[in-house]
Design brief:
mainly beta; 4-stranded antiparallel beta sheet; 24 strands; globular
Length: about 300
């Protein structure tokens, strides 16, 4: 066969397109890197709420609490060796530190009120938490890692929940319910707020219908993920750290809530399911790929992702 300039041109073009396709595939693969780290979560798979952890692929399941009382929520210490949680193991709801070696949990609060939802600061020196100790509603408090020096950050008659820290530890996100404080319950209009860790410079970040909660900063501090109601269903939302460029990440028939960022900021772990069953899922922010990590018939929820 005679090799003509046209054949040579076609061959070169084919090679160039092949290289381009290969490079594009490599770029996509790099963007969709495999999730790493450890995910803690709450599960009722053994008959009562306990705190578990697993690898980011769902393997190496571990029960951290092993107690017949309620154990709920989890926040990692920076070194991944401890979890803060709240428990009823001593009668009323108190905050504890649990060690990875299974040693006796350390009780940090001692108050007849409900102390819940602890989150450890990025430097491992403080814990933000919610309590109704000085109000008929739940407000935001701060204490040292050993439970000392408890101070009030908010004190009002609005229901508040879901505190979380900025990566540099200078700010705290939380939800505040905006409606008549005399109404019972907390299913009204909850909005995402941010403030400095001393309680100053309070700013409202969201202004949408329905209850928005579970806000968490991305590892680089540039974005915030949270869950909220849209069309009478819970979805995951992402916005810039200043509240701009808000969008619905999930937008399907599944109920989605309680997001937690992967260490590289490319994935979100979350609770997904329906009233019949909830499991732990992860979703890639760019590709929207979803993976189901737990498959029990009981309720798995409230994931917390650690790099360790």
């Amino acid at each position: 066969m005679k090799i003509t300039p046209l054949i040579i041109s076609i061959a070169i073009t084919t090679i160039l397109w092949s290289c381009k396709a290969k490079n594009t595939h490599q770029a996509i693969s790099k963007t969709r890197s495999e999730p790493i780290g450890t995910i803690a979560f709450t599960s009722s798979r053994d008959g009562n709420a306990e705190v578990y952890s697993m690898n980011a692929d769902g393997s190496q399941l571990k029960n951290w609490t092993n107690n017949p009382a309620l154990e709920y929520g989890s926040s990692w210490s920076p070194d991944g060796k401890q979890l803060a949680t709240y428990s009823k193991r001593d009668g009323n709801t108190e905050i504890y530190l649990i060690n990875s070696d299974g040693s006796e949990p350390i009780r940090l609060t001692n108050d007849p009120s409900d102390d819940v939802l602890p989150v450890i600061s990025p430097n491992g020196k403080e814990i933000a938490f919610m309590s109704n100790r000085n109000s008929s509603k739940r407000n935001l408090y701060l204490m040292n890692m050993d439970g000392t020096n408890i101070r009030t950050l908010t004190l009002n008659e609005h229901y508040e929940e879901s505190p979380s820290w900025s990566p540099d530890g200078s700010k705290i996100l939380f939800t505040r319910e905006l409606r008549d404080p005399n109404e019972k319950g907390h299913a009204g209009n909850g909005e995402i707020f941010v403030m400095d860790k001393d309680g100053s410079n309070l700013k409202q970040l969201t202004n949408k219908e329905g209850f928005d909660s579970g806000a968490v900063f991305s590892p680089n501090g540039k974005q915030i993920a949270f869950y909220g109601l849209e069309n009478d269903k819970w979805d995951l939302f992402v916005m810039d750290a200043n509240g701009e460029n808000l969008y619905n990440l999930t937008q399907d028939s599944t109920e989605c809530y309680s997001p937690s960022w992967s260490p590289d900021g490319k994935w979100l772990a979350y609770t997904g399911g329906s009233s019949e069953n909830y499991d732990i899922w992860i979703i890639h922010l760019d590709s929207k790929e979803r993976r189901r990590l737990t498959t029990t018939k009981e309720r798995d929820e409230h994931p917390s992702w650690s790099a360790n």
